[in-house]
Design a protein that fits this description.
Order of helices and strands: HHEEEEHEHEHEEEEEEEEEE
Distance between the termini: 55 Å
Helix content: 10-25%
Structural class: alpha+beta
Oligomer: single chain
Mean pLDDT: 83
Shape: globular
Largest sheet: 8 strands, mixed
Low-confidence stretches: 1-14
Radius of gyration: 24 Å
Length: 314
């Protein structure tokens, strides 16, 4: 039977959801969180083992150089040592909560907890996506629209174009960035950039796909070797005379993130009943529903990730 938090007394503990109820609410939070995470979906996932400190790492084996000299008959070559690069990131904790009151008993606690869990999942999704965006937009590999050399040089006519998309693909290909299993690089743009890009005759809208059931979450179309997803979380930044919009173009395993589903990085739902604050809530009027999430992310292949900046048509 679901736990009625409002009926608990302050001596019964702070988070006394039955285990099956807590699993339900965590699953509810995850269901709201995961579909919104476009950047997270494409990240190389890292499991988070317990009791191993706050620093996690990704290890990658670097490619071996080509052999340009034929073998000498009967002579063993020197061979090569494996070259491993280790990239570390420090785990951070994100979280927030909402307050409930005794008056919510009029509507019943279970629907409120469910709805609050969904809202917490939406908030967690935005928090994770913005943490990823902050890290990825902070990379050193940046391309500006219209062949401009800096953000300050961008003008209102420097909107995203199909020609720039071809340049972005060329740059990733020349750096041997790996494509995803679908045979494409991926890109995330905002709705204003979509408006400009879909005017290009090379744009293929997702509605015209031969197999629309194979589309990515949030996918809107493809063009010049990229599959595009549309996100609304990326706010423009200030240029010299215009608001500058930013997008990300990347290959497989270009960045990594903690596994939020099966790798120990699951969010925790925390429910505190009315009166749990003791004398700070003498009339048992206030409770709360919150979430915590351990998370970190890091750029793994700088050459396989390009931040793109442009103006948009007003």
């Amino acid at each position: 039977m679901p736990t009625n938090i409002n009926s608990m007394t302050s001596g019964e503990g702070l988070n006394q959801l039955a285990p099956e109820d807590k699993k339900f609410y965590i699953r509810t939070l995850l269901e709201r969180l995961l579909p919104e995470l476009f950047l997270y979906n494409d990240a190389m996932k890292k499991k988070l083992p317990k009791n191993q400190g706050r620093t996690t790492n990704w290890r990658k084996f670097n490619s071996l150089p080509a052999v340009t000299t034929p073998l000498t008959e009967g002579k063993t070559p020197d061979g090569k040592d494996l070259d491993v690069t280790q990239i570390e990131a420090v785990l951070k904790q994100y979280g927030d909560y909402v307050l409930t009151t005794d008056m919510l008993q009029l509507t019943g606690i279970d629907p409120v907890v469910t709805e609050a869990s969904e809202l917490c999942g939406e908030q967690a999704a935005l928090s994770v996506e913005l943490a990823l965006a902050e890290k990825l937009f902070g990379g050193t590999n940046v391309m500006f629209a219209g062949a401009k050399e800096s953000r300050s040089a961008l003008t209102e006519t420097d909107v995203i174009t199909g020609n720039d998309i071809k340049k972005l693909r060329r740059q990733l290909k020349k750096k041997n960035a790996r494509k995803f299993s679908d045979g494409y690089y991926h890109a995330i743009i905002d709705p204003d950039m979509t408006y400009d890009l879909t005017n290009d005759p090379s744009w293929q809208d997702v509605a015209k796909y031969a197999k629309p059931e194979q589309m990515l979450k949030g996918e809107i179309g493809k063009m010049h070797g990229f599959r595009f997803m549309e996100a609304t979380a990326f706010e423009p930044v200030s240029g010299t005379s215009i608001d500058v919009h930013r997008a990300l173009f990347y290959g497989k395993d270009s960045y990594g993130a903690v596994d939020l589903e099966n790798g120990g990085g699951k969010p925790d739902i925390i429910v505190k009943q009315l009166g749990s604050a003791g004398t700070d809530d003498p009339l048992n009027q206030r409770g709360s529903i919150g979430w915590k999430l351990p998370f970190t992310c890091e750029i793994l292949q700088p050459d396989a990730l390009i931040s793109y900046e442009c103006a948009v048509t007003e």
